[in-house]
Amino acid sequence: MEAVELLTLGVAFIVFVSIFRRGTATRPHHDRRRTIRISDPAVARRALIDHADAFSNRPMPPFPAGRPVTHGIASAPYGPFWRALRSNLAADILHRSRLGVLAPLEREATEALVASFTSQAVAGNGDGVIVPRNTIHSAVFALIARLCFGDDDAMDARADLGAMVQTQREFLESFVVTMASSERSWLARLLQWRQQQLHAGMFDRVDEVFIPAVIAARRRRQSSQHGNGGVGSFRSHIDSLLELHVPNNNNDDDERAWRLLTDEEVAFLIWEFLGGGTLSVLTCLEWTLAHLAAEPEIQSKLHREVAGALDNSKIMAYDQQRLPFLHAVVMESLRLHPPTPFATRDVHADGIAALALGEEVVLPPGGGAAPVSFVLGDIGRDKKVWTNPDEFRPERLLDGGEGEGVSLVPGPKTEVKMMPFGAGRRHCPGVAMGMSHIKCFLAELVRGFEWTPPADGAGATDFAEVDGFRKMMKTPLRVRITPRSMK
Ligand code: HEM
Q1: How far apart are CA 147 and CA 422, in angstroms?
Q2: Of 7-21, 154-168, 473-487, which one has max mean pLDDT?
Q3: Cβ(159)–Cβ(267) below 8 Å
Q4: 108 closest CA partner among 320, 323, 314
Q5: pLDDT, position 17
Q6: Which of 45, 250, 455, 484 sits a CA distance of 20 to 30 A from 303?
Q7: Contact 236, 244 (CB under 8 A)
Q8: What is the rounded distance in angstroms from the CA atom of residue 45 to the CA atom of residue 415?
Q9: Distance CA 444, CA 216 (A)
Q10: How far apart are the two ends of the chain, measured CA to CA in Å?
Q11: What digits encode the pLDDT tens for the residues 45-70?
Q12: Closest Cα partner for 217 from 162, 290, 152?
């Protein structure tokens, strides 16, 4: 090799190492510490419920250097600012009482999805083999976007929905989680570095795609003198954010310090809302359809329940009580494949010590804090709690089964057996809406089609998981659908 080439290679190597060491983001001081992983349901209960105060903060995510820190609900430190954001979401658009108003929107969204799959089933060579991920993604996103931006004719002009879906897709596909056990290996650090780059790029992309929608919504409110854009009898989510006052400096005692959210903050919160509302529902639907295609008896039982209970009407959020097997199927899918792989907390040494985890766990020095990660997939598959935990057996969640009465979010008096929506102060505020959407889509998809593995010998469904931003199927589901009306 020529000396010049060697020199160029050497300089490139030094530049790479210095970027790699420095990172592309401002990182909190504790970032290099080893994450404590918790997979035992009883320990999770002790931490998140018995010691809820100590386990209510989140680790600070890395922010791109030179950029003001912008928090969503999920990343905001526990305190008045987080409380203001969370109560706005939980008491407004996500409140249980809104489910009835949501029903017509869910119905339209499921009808559109069924129509789209029906045309795909007969298109191409007519063998009915489809890869449903992107079609489901677009359908769920369209529903959440109506709640977010409202339902007026100007919606498309305000928000580039296509670019938003694309941003989600790119983020979903590129985000890979490095596990705590190998955090210090050079490969893990390289992956973390790459992830920081993606994370930094994501902030730019969110600004680029979402801020125009925020500015347009503000203008519309000013010109029309009303904050409508709401759906039915409630405000759109963006309107609630534009009206919201939050405490400045994380101090809610001084009312003069309360302020409106900035455009950047509203854009980030909308990104979080659309992501939270879409990606977990999509992930759960894909896993559930994969299991139903692989287990025809379970699918037939579900079809009988749905078709029998609903006659020709569409499922409504409030009908779901009448469909216990549908509930069990969704719960079983969430137990095996919780769409959000981890619930993370930032915990001070005394909180960690209170769990008495044994000598293997090194407490953060000087009473500092350390990141703690609850591994939701392991918690749902604990052998002490479930028989043959890796099997998909929805019956176990029916009355008389070992999972009878398991709640979606563990409460103060219950044992933790699974926690796909997390637990404690930071548990998911979208439980009711998420479950309602999943059940509505699933019921119509099973009522409309028979789902079977492709008959072309391309291999059985690959149930491998990938822990990324969501616990997706590593290989997108490929499946054969037959419209039941054509059977
Ligand atoms: C199948 C559906 C869903 C699943 C499985 C799910 C799961 C989760 C999990 C595991 C967490 C972390 C909980 C913890 O740390 O204890 C979380 C947090 C969160 N989820 Fe969901 N989620 C779903 C639907 C939704 C929906 C529909 C929304 C809103 C539109 C939403 C918004 C949020 C937000 C804002 C947080 C952060 C809460 C906080 O830090 O205070 N999620 N979700």
Answers
A1: 24
A2: 473-487
A3: no
A4: 314
A5: 45
A6: 455
A7: no
A8: 7
A9: 35
A10: 68
A11: 999 999 999 999 999 876 777 777 88
A12: 152
CA quadruple 417, 422, 425, 429: dihedral sign: negative
Q: How far away, in angstroms, is 434 Cα from ligand 1 center?
A: 9
Query: What is the average pLDDT across 181-201?
Result: 66
Torsion angle, alpha carbons of 191, 194, 196, 198, to 10: -130
State the average pLDDT over residues 139-163: 79
CA neighbor of 149 nearest in space, from 100, 214, 205, 84: 214
Helix (H, G, I), strand (E, B) or coil at 415: coil
Known binding-site residue numbers for heme: 428
Pocket lining for ligand 1, CB < 6 angstroms: 73-74, 86, 94, 272-273, 276-277, 280-281, 284, 339-340, 343, 420-424, 426-430, 433-434, 438
Residue with token string 């509505």: 440
Residue with tokens 């007519």: 126
Phi and psi, residue 13, nearest 5°: -65, -45
Residues of 374-408 as b/e, b for ≥16 C-beta within 10 angstroms? bbbbbbbbbeebbeebeebbbebbeeeeebeebeb
> With contact defined as beta carbons under 8 Å apart, do 376 and 345 qualify?
no
For residue 93, give both structure tokens. Answer: 């658009």
Length of the chain: 487
Q: How far is CA 359 from CA 346, 355, 364, 365, in A?
A: 20, 12, 13, 14
Triad 449, 399, 381: Cα angle to 5°: 75
Could you identify the residue written with the tokens 């990172």? 23
CA–CA separation, 113 and 109 (whole Å): 6
422 C-alpha to ligand 1 centroid (Å): 8
Ligand 1 mean position, distance from CA 428 (Å): 3
pTM listed for this prediction = 0.89
Average pLDDT, the chain: 84
Q: Write out the two tokens for 84.
A: 């203001």
- 466 phi and psi angles, rounded to 5 deg: -130, 125
Look at residue 256 and tell me whether its pLDDT is greater than 50: yes
For residue 68 the two structure tokens come to 């003001």
CA of 113 to the centre of ligand 1 (A): 24
Q: How far apart are CA 462 and CA 388, in angstroms?
A: 20
ipTM: 0.99
Angle in degrees, CA 356, 362, 367, rounded to 5: 85
